[in-house]
Design goal:
By secondary structure, the chain is α/β, with parallel strands linked by helices. The protein has 23 helices and 21 strands.
Length: 634
């Protein structure tokens, strides 16, 4: 097996772990990070399963962990690793308004797969909670697979090794609502979502019975079975619904997985108590060792080593993990009692606050779909969106999994409920959570109520809902919210360059005698929002270079030329088409004499002629003691 194969790392790590006289937590942590699909429900690494799969010649299956197979899976995996060919065009007209200019909230109009590809460059490991309500695969018009196929047949054969028949089967899912089509649609999006979550982050996904079983397997595949948190059951409707003669379905599911279950910390229910003692050994259901093998371990107390052995002599399990038990022992919250020759360990709960977890059965207070519709009615947007989730539901999930300064992501924004919920929760607990929403500019239905009142696309509904919800919150909480409460958001559109622009990029010759191509730069503009081509290039490359949307940039005057400078990091972008010798001298003076910190210069070649580029490169090296890295980005 090649040494650069990730499975080689896993094999070497297992050998090192096995060679150690004691379990090596760092090695096991590395295995959990690299291969989450081989974690069991207790967080233990399934070495036997890994080695069994390792023997298989089908490496793709080994990487998958689960043998969840569907038409399009290899292609979906390939999609998750592609870079986006779209550009982020900032809505300058909107973003320059006072309520939006300094906002940390973001709304992206466009395909969410492309948006995630951009976001992963700047937000990998930074998002605390992801909530999504993807299209349900009901077999009707709720979902059809319409992702564009990003490879020719020849490339699919080269990249995936597919035969003509396999390519035909793959492309047969386009325009369909089959299980395979839905899974192919969801896989790359969840794969990128997993990269965006921070180590103690969590994702919640709403789903109904049509795909909940497949979604559970898919999320186990992406996040690892051992990182499964819960399948919450939400009473979405009140009373009997539908015309079925068998059973009335009034519930939906919300599946949740952690990035790393060992680091996840949910809020708990806190209630006053008078103190009590509780047997640390599990009783009732799931009280056997085989139910939770990782919960069977010795606890040494007062020189006596105690295992969770039941009174009938069979092996049981503790109620808490070993790390928690050691913390309780250290803090004096465990005591040993001996009765009839059997040693038992009790946990001491002092009087004060009792802490218990929330149930997977969500409380009625989280609301129903009817209340979701009521929220829109309260904003005078009744019937503009079908099946909107209640903001109280999403508030509850964010309360469980987020802290006051976290980032919340929803890449199926719909009517904008998540943004509404973030603002409401911030108003309640004084938080400063920020949201990132993504919504495709999907047309509203002809003749629909939304179209009648002027909403041509779904993203228009979402953004208008956020604006109205902000105004309502501001009015209702005028005397209680801080002056810097974030009611605004920055808006970006994903745009695709014209075929002519792409042809020019492909045909660009860096050594040709070219003049600055202002037409090329202007092709990235969005005139209706006052967005220039330079605005679009700068916004896109800032994110692609790992800077978040709230990164501070400055316009840096260089004689009669304007550069764009990022003080925190020393990035300098040369994107304007009027570069000249005076600008070069000014730049060299600012770096050499004035001590301007510039580590990297990003240059857009279409804005420069050949001689200007050569002059810049030559002088940077000749004049400066330590010249910045120069990147020409096409």
């Amino acid at each position: 097996m090649p040494e650069n194969n990730p499975l080689s790392f896993g094999l070497h790590t297992i050998r090192a772990a096995n060679a150690a006289t004691k379990p090596n937590s760092e090695l096991l942590a590395a295995l959990r990070e690299k291969f989450p699909q081989f974690l069991d429900r207790d967080g233990a690494f399934k070495t036997d399963k890994f080695l069994e799969e390792l023997k298989s010649s089908n490496i793709a299956e080994v990487r998958d962990g689960y043998r969840l197979g569907f038409v399009g899976k290899d292609y979906a995996r390939l999609q998750s690793g592609l870079a986006s060919e779209t550009f982020l065009a900032p809505d300058i007209a909107h973003n320059s308004k006072p309520e939006n200019a300094n906002s940390g909230n973001v709304f992206i109009t466009g395909d969410n797969l492309d948006a995630l590809r951009h976001l992963v460059n700047a937000y990998a490991g930074k998002v605390k909670v992801i909530y999504i309500d993807p299209p349900y695969n009901t077999g009707g018009d709720g979902f059809v697979y319409n992702d564009r196929f990003e490879f020719t047949n020849d490339k699919l054969q080269t990249q995936l090794g597919h035969t003509d028949e396999e390519i035909k089967r793959l492309k047969s899912i386009n325009g369909r609502s089959s299980h395979s089509a839905w899974l192919t649609f969801m896989y790359p999006r969840l794969k990128l979502a997993q990269k965006l979550l921070c180590d103690d982050g969590v994702i919640f996904v709403s789903i109904d019975d049509n795909e909940q079983a497949n979604l559970k397997l898919l999320m186990d595949d992406v996040f690892g079975e051992g990182n499964f948190v819960a399948a919450f059951i939400w009473k979405a409707k009140l009373g009997k619904v539908g015309t079925t003669s068998t059973i009335s379905s009034t519930h939906e599911y919300i599946l949740s997985h952690a990035k790393n279950i060992e680091k996840l910390s949910f809020k708990m229910i806190e209630t006053p108590n008078n103190g009590r003692k509780e047997n640390l050994r599990q009783w009732g259901q799931a009280d056997r060792r085989e139910d939770r093998p990782a919960m069977f371990y010795p606890i040494e107390i007062n020189g006596i080593e105690v295992f969770p052995i039941k009174k009938d002599g069979t092996e049981g399990r503790w109620r808490v993990g070993k790390v928690t038990a050691m913390e309780l022992l250290k803090s004096g919250q465990l005591e040993i009692k001996s009765q009839d020759g059997i040693n038992e360990i009790y946990r001491i709960f002092e009087s004060g606050i009792s802490i218990i977890p929330y149930s997977t059965l969500l409380p009625d207070e989280v609301g129903t779909t009817a209340q979701g519709s009521t929220s829109l009615s309260d904003l005078e947007m009744a019937k503009t969106f079908d099946y909107s989730k209640p903001s109280t539901l999403i508030q509850f999930l964010m309360m469980l999994g987020s802290n006051k300064n976290d980032i919340i992501l929803d890449f199926f924004a719909g009517s904008g409920t998540t943004a509404h919920a973030v603002m409401q929760l911030n108003a309640k607990d004084g938080g400063n959570r920020k949201y990132i929403l993504v919504q495709l500019n999907e047309p509203t239905r002809e003749g629909s109520e939304a179209r009648k009142v002027g909403y041509n696309t779904i993203d228009e509904i979402s953004r208008e809902r956020i604006k109205r919800a902000s105004a309502k919150l501001k009015q209702e909480n005028a005397t209680t919210l801080p002056a810097d409460f974030d009611f605004g958001f920055k808006h970006y559109r994903l745009i695709t360059p014209s075929e002519q622009t792409l042809d020019k990029v492909d045909a660009f010759n860096p050594d040709a005698e070219l003049v600055a191509d202002t037409e090329m730069i202007n092709s990235f503009a969005h005139p209706t929002t006052n967005t220039t081509g330079v605005d679009t290039l700068l916004a896109t490359w800032l994110v692609d270079d790992g800077l978040t949307f709230d990164a501070k940039t400055e316009k840096l005057p260089l004689a009669n030329y304007t550069a764009h400078y990022v003080p925190n990091g020393g990035l300098l972008y040369l994107l304007e088409p009027d570069w000249n010798t005076a600008a070069l001298k000014a730049l060299l003076n600012k770096i050499g004499k004035d001590g301007l910190s510039v580590s990297t210069i990003v240059l857009y070649p279409h804005a420069f002629n050949l001689e200007a580029r050569r002059e810049l490169k030559t002088n940077l090296k000749a004049v400066l003691e330590q010249s910045p890295v120069l990147i020409e980005r096409y």
